[in-house]
Design brief:
alpha/beta; D-Maltodextrin-Binding Protein, domain 2; 12 strands; globular
Length: 258
Amino acid sequence: MQMPNARLLTLLTLLSAIGLAFAGATAAHAEQVSVAVAANFTAPMQKIAAAFEADTGHKAELSFGATGKFYAQITNGAPFQILLSADDTTPAKLEREGKVVANSRFTYAIGTLVLWSAKEGYVDDRGAVLKNGDFKHLAIANPKLAPYGLAATQVMDTLGLAATLQPRFVQGENIAQTYQFVATGNAQLGFVALSQVMVDGKIAKGSAWQVPADMHEPIRQDAALLETGKGNAAATALMQYLKTDKAKAIIKSYGYSF
């Protein structure tokens, strides 16, 4: 009766050793990738990065900011390995300049622009407040650096309100700073990304007008593997992970489409 128990113990010990060896090998092969992330994608990317690390062992080091600013940093040698842009033109331009791995670009999300106020009932569902409101400040992101800011200017041009509203602009360097202007009350309302104010499919607080997509150019947000990330296992894995059902579910939960 002792022999089977002894053999079982030996087998369990062997399996445990194999498991530890496998875990050690996985840890040894785990790598880190440096990712430049458009500010509007902050919340979903933080969730995706956590899931990515749990599922693959690789770690994504995230930096958030304006796409235009990232472009300048990348062209000046910043060691980012992936760019998650707020548009599709910046990655295309970087590819033409030889800084993006050929054929690596793809659209990971299509953004939605909203006119938002932290005040309940302040923004109506058609954006008429832009014409009728007595607000002092309207926050927008720098249209030269942030695609959501550019989209905001296109909306105001479409409405014929650009010249009228320009004296009231409070301009953020990126969409995250623009959101803060409105959230803190320094601006009564502003154009931000839907992802910044949506939780579980609903506007978390305040009031908002979801801008019709035909009032501005589509906000196609492209991911690109930079030449500096070529050969990095974590970079390759993250580019693939963004296409998984798990990542797409997170992205969609913040109001993006594909």
